Amino acid sequence: MSSSISRHLGQPIRACSAASRLELKNAMAGHLAGLRIEEDADAASTDAQPTPGSLFRETLARVAARTERTAPPPPPPIVTKAPNAAAFLKVAAPMLLPRADFEFMTLELAAAAAARCPSGGDYFVVRSGADAVLGALRPPIGDGTLRLCGDGNDGVAMQAALLLAECLAEAEANVKQVSGPASLAEAFSRQLAFRRRWKAPEKTGGLRIFSRRRPAEEAGRPELVTGESRSAATVIEWLDACEVEAGIDAAQRTPGRVALERFGGVYVRRQKDGELACICGVVGQATSPGGRRIGLVYTPPSLRRAGHATELVKSVTSVLLDDRTGPGFATVVVPAGALDGLWTRAGYCHVGDTAEYRLDPAPRALPTDAVDDDSETVQ
């Protein structure tokens, strides 16, 4: 662009003299002389006087036509039933593995059922064409909850959840508890309750899932304390305190010594004087399809707000991700509503939420219109 154009573009046009404006006009005309502007065929209209309503309808029609040409609608979903957990995994794995950090609980449950219960249980897969878009399993192990799996942000998966609810309602399946991705679990539960004429489902809980796929930079190697270590007594005491602070009922608490054995040792961070500052337990096996996850992190109240938990989580996560035999991610599961500051500071990302619903087979109350005895009924 010429220097005269650059000079005039730095000030309002109204401040230019008539000669300057003519100079600018001639310069721009020369600059645009080599450009060819073609009329947009979609923008042309045969209406002599188009109205805003007609333009809007025409635009919608053009967008719909383009969408139909470029993205044909997916095949309608079809519900199928797998004979066992192994068959379920074979069909559902292509859907689950790309989202393994969010679906790790489903993967672990199905893998455990395949190893321990070769027969029995309910396993459903909803397909759209050749692709599985939704899964549901209720293996013999567990508490009888029907667990859904699938992408809650996918409209086809949502349609599949509603279809599965319709099928199970028609079959009068005995479903009392449902869990899974929050949106799918809610839609499925409400549809099933509606079709069975049950009370509205009650949400009983949910989880937030965080994931990290890359080791933390410059993270130190954490110390692992086992039952034979000199700090085992303190670790056991802190494990008990962690469950008390979490509000777990006394009848359902796991004794600290038992928890230490189940973890296979607990990672610790120490203060400068060598005393314990924070503990972290890890559950799952490195070769599990569901990965490994941090089960708990606990710092005594007097030692909090000093960064001990953040640094320990970073170093433990690096240990987990450095294990090349693992699936390449580490996860954290916290109750819905729990603060996520620790996990985000440690480099974890929120990957999704789950929800749990209880279904009550009691008949729901239907709205009725009050009618006087002497009133006439109009057919």
Mean pLDDT level? 82
Q: What portion of residues belong to β-strands?
A: 15-25%
Q: Assign the structural class, choosing from mainly alpha, mainly beta, alpha/beta, alpha+beta, or little secondary structure.
A: alpha+beta
Low-confidence stretches: 1-15, 34-45, 375-379
Instruction: Assign the CATH class of the domain at 77-207.
Output: Alpha Beta
Terminal residue distance: 80 Å
Summarize the biggest pleated sheet: 12 strands, mixed
Describe this structure in words.
The protein is α+β, with helices and mostly antiparallel strands and 379 residues long. Among the domains are: 77-207, Aminopeptidase (3-Layer(aba) Sandwich); 223-328, Gcn5-related N-acetyltransferase (GNAT) (Aminopeptidase). 37% of the residues lie in helices and 21% in strands. The protein contains eleven helices and twelve strands. The chain has helices at residues 3-9, 18-32, 52-70, 85-96, 104-116, 155-170, 182-196, 232-245, 256-263, 308-322, 341-345, and strands spanning 77-82, 122-128, 131-138, 146-149, 177-181, 202-212, 223-225, 266-270, 276-283, 292-298, 330-335, 349-358. A twelve-stranded mixed beta sheet has the order 1-2-3-4-5-12-6-11-10-9-8-7, sandwiched between helices. A hairpin with a 7-residue loop joins β3 and β4 (146-149). α4 packs antiparallel against α5 (104-116), α6 runs parallel beside α7 and α8 packs across α9. Mean pLDDT is 82; it is low at 1-15, 34-45 and 375-379.
